[in-house]
């Protein structure tokens, strides 16, 4: 489905479904609102799904992997070749997200959307090759992507969401990997929020003090160079983003179009959610935020988006790890909602008065 068709297909979450879920929650054998924020999660899930019964299908984590031209400026503690090495680690099941999804019983799909080293001639098992190019360009010298490339990367995410829906998935999580991508994400978030680079940029994979200051200077130079792109979200994404960031934004849009809640991982996934919300204002109502990351100014950005994360565990790994853990909490909330008895069915007296 093209971007324009996807945007046209997105409608607001259904308040009647949320109200139906609220009525059932009020009838369950527990004090009213005693499950706290989990009850809000159920109501929001029902509204996004347009289904007051909040039926649950499969849950899937989508991880997008790509390289960044800005990595040549020493903005990461790791060299760029780590991206393809981690892609291989995903394929072999050795990454943290692989262990978590196995343990939690979640589906996992990994996409190469632009790793500098092309392994598609001898494809890795379990990797879907949807490559846009061999990494983005250096955004200090040019736009990171052509506008056409940015739209193609969005389309990869939209298609992944539609494929998930067709396979019975009712809950999606997004994650990423790519050396240099916290710099691209920070630049995007600065442009979107108006916050300063030193407020937003974190230490990524473990930069020392000098590396952090270098990263801030790179972001400031990029923001100045691409200032004219800030008013248009697609041009902004092309100027400062990455293929994996664009693909995750596409999942946010595609998920909303097919009524699937998308669980946002950490700092970099939040940049994707923020740009998706700029492309389709109000999109954040279709998203659930998995956790508050320890990376950079994630807490400030969540506040800007008026988003309440489910977890706060000082995570800063990426890969969709926080989204996977949050999905397990969402699934537990939905299991309680569907599995508990009502006061009437259990023969339990309700609160007096």
Task: Write up what this structure looks like.
The structure is a single chain. The protein is of the alpha/beta class. The protein has one domain (57-331): Nicotinate-nucleotide-dimethylbenzimidazole phosphoribosyltransferase (CobT), large domain (Rossmann fold, 3-Layer(aba) Sandwich). The chain is built from 15 helices and 6 strands. It has helices at 3-9, 15-27, 37-49, 82-91, 96-104, 147-166, 181-193, 197-200, 209-225, 233-240, 243-257, 267-279, 298-304, 321-339, 343-346, and strands at 58-66, 107-114, 127-129, 169-177, 262-264, 287-289. Strands 3-2-1-4-5-6 form a 6-stranded parallel β-sheet, sandwiched between helices. It is globular, with a radius of gyration of 20 Å. 52% of the residues are buried.
């Amino acid at each position: 489905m093209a971007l324009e068709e996807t945007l046209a297909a997105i409608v607001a979450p259904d308040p009647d479904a949320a109200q139906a879920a609220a009525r059932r929650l009020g009838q369950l054998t527990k004090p009213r609102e005693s499950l706290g924020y989990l009850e809000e999660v159920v109501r929001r899930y029902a509204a996004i799904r347009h289904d007051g019964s909040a039926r649950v299908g499969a849950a899937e984590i989508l991880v997008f992997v790509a390289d960044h031209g800005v990595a040549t400026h020493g903005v990461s503690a790791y060299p760029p070749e780590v991206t393809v090495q981690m892609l291989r680690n995903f394929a072999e099941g050795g990454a943290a997200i692989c262990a978590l999804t196995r343990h939690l019983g979640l589906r996992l799909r990994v996409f190469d959307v632009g790793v500098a080293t092309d392994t598609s001639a001898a494809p890795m098992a379990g990797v879907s090759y949807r490559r846009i190019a061999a990494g983005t360009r250096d955004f200090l010298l040019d736009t990171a992507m052509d506008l056409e490339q940015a739209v193609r990367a969005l389309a990869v995410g939209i298609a992944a969401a539609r494929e998930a829906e067709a396979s019975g998935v009712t809950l999606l999580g997004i994650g990423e990997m790519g050396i240099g991508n916290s710099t691209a994400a920070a630049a995007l978030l600065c442009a979107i929020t108006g916050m300063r680079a030193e407020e937003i940029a974190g230490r990524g994979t473990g930069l020392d003090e000098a590396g952090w200051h270098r990263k801030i200077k790179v972001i400031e130079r990029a923001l100045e160079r691409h200032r004219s792109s800030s008013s248009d979200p697609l041009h902004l994404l092309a100027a400062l983003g990455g293929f994996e960031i664009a693909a995750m934004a596409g999942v946010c849009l595609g998920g909303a179009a097919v009524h699937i809640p998308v669980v946002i991982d950490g700092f970099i996934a939040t940049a994707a959610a923020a740009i998706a919300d700029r492309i389709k204002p109000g999109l954040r109502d279709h998203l659930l935020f998995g956790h508050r990351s320890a990376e950079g100014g994630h807490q400030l950005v969540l506040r800007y988006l008026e988003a309440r994360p489910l977890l706060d565990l000082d995570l800063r790994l990426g890969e969709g790890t926080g989204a996977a853990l949050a999905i397990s909490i969402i699934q537990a909330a939905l299991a309680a909602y569907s599995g508990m008895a009502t006061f009437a069915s259990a023969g339990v007296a309700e609160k007096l008065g």
